[in-house]
Amino acid sequence: MIVINLPPGLEHALAAVTTISDVIVAPVNPSGGEFHATTRFVDLIQKCRKARGTDKPDCPIVPNRIDG
Q1: CA distance 46 to 15
Q2: Which of 9, 10, 30, 52 is least enclosed by beta carbons within 10 angstroms?
């Protein structure tokens, strides 16, 4: 297992990592800006799956910094 931690603004790096990953965990803060960035990221995941011809990478979206 290899863990790569990238900030959300590195779209080219995210595209490269998405191409070779089996699972990507996407932590998301509850804010409008995060929601917009996450939508773009989900689009990237879908394009990658189509290009690979598989349902990989899996991509659970995990709420981050929420009140309990």
Answers
A1: 11
A2: 9
pLDDT of 68 reads 60
Question: Could you count the other beta carbons within 10 Å of the beta carbon of residue 50?
Answer: 9
pTM (2 d.p.) = 0.73
* CB-based contact 59:24 (threshold 8 Å): yes
Q: Which residue ranges make up each domain of the chain? A: 29-68
Residue whose C-alpha is closest to residue 21's, from 44, 62, 63: 44
pLDDT along the chain (68 residues), means of 10: 76 83 86 78 90 92 76
**What's the length of the chain?**
68
Q: Please say whether the beta carbons of 18 and 44 come within 8 A.
A: yes
